[in-house]
Amino acid sequence: MDLLLGPLLAAAAGYFLYVRSRTYARNHPRGHAYGLERHQKTMIFGALAVTALALVLTINGLQSDNSSASASSDSTSDSLDGSFEDWMAALCAPGTFHNGTSWQGATGGGSCQTTTGQVVFIGEYESNFLRDNDLAAYRMTYFASSIDDIGQIVVFSVNTRSAQTLNPLTSFGFDIYPVTSR
Fold it and tell me: pTM for the full model?
Protein backbone atom coordinates (compact mmCIF):
# COMPACT_ATOMS: atom_id res chain seq x y z
CA MET A 1 0.00 0.00 0.00
CA ASP A 2 2.84 2.40 0.84
CA LEU A 3 4.29 1.82 -2.63
CA LEU A 4 1.16 3.16 -4.27
CA LEU A 5 0.75 6.07 -1.90
CA GLY A 6 3.81 7.99 -3.16
CA PRO A 7 2.93 8.05 -6.85
CA LEU A 8 -0.76 8.71 -6.08
CA LEU A 9 0.04 11.70 -3.90
CA ALA A 10 2.50 13.02 -6.48
CA ALA A 11 -0.06 12.57 -9.27
CA ALA A 12 -2.70 14.39 -7.23
CA ALA A 13 -0.29 17.25 -6.52
CA GLY A 14 0.66 17.42 -10.21
CA TYR A 15 -2.96 17.46 -11.35
CA PHE A 16 -3.82 20.19 -8.82
CA LEU A 17 -0.84 22.25 -10.00
CA TYR A 18 -1.83 21.78 -13.66
CA VAL A 19 -5.48 22.78 -13.16
CA ARG A 20 -4.55 25.75 -10.99
CA SER A 21 -1.91 26.98 -13.43
CA ARG A 22 -4.17 26.50 -16.48
CA THR A 23 -7.00 28.41 -14.83
CA TYR A 24 -4.60 31.20 -13.88
CA ALA A 25 -3.26 31.30 -17.48
CA ARG A 26 -6.75 31.64 -18.98
CA ASN A 27 -7.68 34.47 -16.64
CA HIS A 28 -4.32 36.30 -16.46
CA PRO A 29 -4.71 40.11 -16.30
CA ARG A 30 -1.99 40.64 -18.97
CA GLY A 31 -3.74 38.35 -21.40
CA HIS A 32 -3.87 34.76 -22.43
CA ALA A 33 -0.49 34.73 -24.23
CA TYR A 34 1.39 35.93 -21.14
CA GLY A 35 -0.56 33.53 -18.94
CA LEU A 36 0.19 30.62 -21.31
CA GLU A 37 3.93 31.34 -21.18
CA ARG A 38 3.78 31.39 -17.40
CA HIS A 39 1.70 28.19 -17.38
CA GLN A 40 4.36 26.40 -19.45
CA LYS A 41 7.16 27.48 -17.08
CA THR A 42 5.08 26.40 -14.10
CA MET A 43 4.44 23.01 -15.70
CA ILE A 44 8.16 22.40 -16.36
CA PHE A 45 9.22 23.25 -12.82
CA GLY A 46 6.12 21.59 -11.40
CA ALA A 47 6.80 18.37 -13.30
CA LEU A 48 10.32 18.27 -11.88
CA ALA A 49 9.04 18.89 -8.36
CA VAL A 50 6.27 16.28 -8.66
CA THR A 51 8.71 13.71 -10.07
CA ALA A 52 11.10 14.33 -7.18
CA LEU A 53 8.21 14.01 -4.72
CA ALA A 54 7.10 10.74 -6.32
CA LEU A 55 10.64 9.33 -6.13
CA VAL A 56 11.11 10.32 -2.51
CA LEU A 57 7.75 8.88 -1.45
CA THR A 58 8.24 5.68 -3.46
CA ILE A 59 11.73 5.09 -2.07
CA ASN A 60 10.39 5.70 1.42
CA GLY A 61 7.57 3.20 0.73
CA LEU A 62 10.05 0.61 -0.56
CA GLN A 63 12.19 0.97 2.54
CA SER A 64 9.23 0.56 4.89
CA ASP A 65 7.92 -2.46 2.90
CA ASN A 66 11.34 -4.14 3.00
CA SER A 67 11.73 -3.60 6.73
CA SER A 68 8.26 -4.96 7.53
CA ALA A 69 8.75 -7.94 5.21
CA SER A 70 12.02 -8.87 6.86
CA ALA A 71 10.48 -8.49 10.32
CA SER A 72 7.59 -10.81 9.49
CA SER A 73 9.81 -13.41 7.84
CA ASP A 74 12.13 -13.38 10.88
CA SER A 75 9.24 -14.05 13.22
CA THR A 76 7.95 -17.05 11.24
CA SER A 77 11.01 -18.75 9.78
CA ASP A 78 12.55 -19.78 13.13
CA SER A 79 9.31 -20.55 14.95
CA LEU A 80 9.24 -24.32 14.27
CA ASP A 81 11.82 -27.06 14.06
CA GLY A 82 11.37 -30.19 11.99
CA SER A 83 8.90 -30.85 9.23
CA PHE A 84 5.27 -31.90 9.04
CA GLU A 85 6.44 -35.50 8.79
CA ASP A 86 8.51 -35.10 11.98
CA TRP A 87 5.54 -33.64 13.88
CA MET A 88 3.27 -36.43 12.66
CA ALA A 89 5.81 -39.12 13.61
CA ALA A 90 6.02 -37.67 17.13
CA LEU A 91 2.23 -37.76 17.58
CA CYS A 92 0.59 -40.31 15.32
CA ALA A 93 0.71 -44.06 15.22
CA PRO A 94 1.71 -45.35 11.78
CA GLY A 95 -1.18 -45.74 9.35
CA THR A 96 -3.68 -43.64 11.33
CA PHE A 97 -3.46 -40.28 9.51
CA HIS A 98 -6.55 -39.26 7.54
CA ASN A 99 -6.05 -36.36 5.15
CA GLY A 100 -8.77 -33.75 4.86
CA THR A 101 -10.91 -31.78 7.25
CA SER A 102 -14.50 -30.59 7.37
CA TRP A 103 -13.74 -27.80 9.82
CA GLN A 104 -15.16 -24.57 8.41
CA GLY A 105 -12.27 -22.18 9.01
CA ALA A 106 -9.38 -24.51 8.13
CA THR A 107 -7.59 -24.29 4.79
CA GLY A 108 -6.27 -27.82 5.25
CA GLY A 109 -5.84 -30.55 7.81
CA GLY A 110 -6.74 -34.03 8.91
CA SER A 111 -6.68 -36.31 11.94
CA CYS A 112 -4.72 -39.22 13.37
CA GLN A 113 -4.55 -41.46 16.43
CA THR A 114 -1.74 -41.63 18.93
CA THR A 115 -0.22 -44.92 20.02
CA THR A 116 -2.52 -44.73 23.08
CA GLY A 117 -5.63 -44.32 20.90
CA GLN A 118 -6.22 -40.57 21.42
CA VAL A 119 -7.53 -38.73 18.35
CA VAL A 120 -5.54 -35.64 17.31
CA PHE A 121 -7.12 -33.11 14.94
CA ILE A 122 -4.79 -31.15 12.66
CA GLY A 123 -5.65 -27.86 10.97
CA GLU A 124 -4.05 -25.01 9.03
CA TYR A 125 -5.52 -21.54 9.41
CA GLU A 126 -5.06 -18.07 8.00
CA SER A 127 -6.17 -16.30 11.19
CA ASN A 128 -6.40 -16.85 14.93
CA PHE A 129 -10.09 -15.97 14.82
CA LEU A 130 -10.89 -18.84 12.44
CA ARG A 131 -8.75 -21.21 14.50
CA ASP A 132 -10.40 -20.21 17.79
CA ASN A 133 -13.85 -20.44 16.24
CA ASP A 134 -13.29 -24.02 15.06
CA LEU A 135 -11.70 -25.11 18.35
CA ALA A 136 -14.74 -23.83 20.26
CA ALA A 137 -17.28 -25.17 17.75
CA TYR A 138 -15.80 -28.68 17.86
CA ARG A 139 -15.35 -28.55 21.66
CA MET A 140 -11.59 -29.08 21.70
CA THR A 141 -9.95 -28.81 25.13
CA TYR A 142 -6.25 -28.26 24.29
CA PHE A 143 -4.29 -27.25 21.24
CA ALA A 144 -0.67 -26.83 20.16
CA SER A 145 -0.14 -23.99 17.76
CA SER A 146 2.62 -22.22 15.87
CA ILE A 147 3.27 -20.54 12.53
CA ASP A 148 4.92 -22.53 9.75
CA ASP A 149 7.47 -21.27 7.22
CA ILE A 150 4.78 -20.00 4.81
CA GLY A 151 2.82 -18.08 7.43
CA GLN A 152 0.01 -20.56 8.03
CA ILE A 153 -1.13 -21.17 11.60
CA VAL A 154 -0.60 -24.89 12.23
CA VAL A 155 -2.81 -26.40 14.95
CA PHE A 156 -2.91 -29.81 16.59
CA SER A 157 -5.90 -30.18 18.93
CA VAL A 158 -7.44 -32.76 21.23
CA ASN A 159 -10.66 -33.24 23.15
CA THR A 160 -9.16 -34.82 26.28
CA ARG A 161 -8.89 -33.93 29.94
CA SER A 162 -5.12 -33.55 29.69
CA ALA A 163 -2.77 -31.80 27.27
CA GLN A 164 -0.25 -34.61 27.70
CA THR A 165 -1.10 -36.05 24.27
CA LEU A 166 0.34 -32.91 22.64
CA ASN A 167 3.55 -32.72 24.74
CA PRO A 168 5.81 -34.28 22.04
CA LEU A 169 5.21 -31.16 19.89
CA THR A 170 6.86 -28.80 22.38
CA SER A 171 10.29 -30.10 21.33
CA PHE A 172 9.59 -28.70 17.83
CA GLY A 173 8.65 -25.21 19.07
CA PHE A 174 4.91 -25.60 19.48
CA ASP A 175 3.17 -24.01 22.45
CA ILE A 176 0.22 -25.78 24.14
CA TYR A 177 -2.86 -23.82 25.20
CA PRO A 178 -6.21 -24.64 26.78
CA VAL A 179 -9.23 -23.79 24.65
CA THR A 180 -11.14 -20.97 26.32
CA SER A 181 -14.76 -20.08 25.67
CA ARG A 182 -15.46 -16.44 25.01
Answer: 0.55
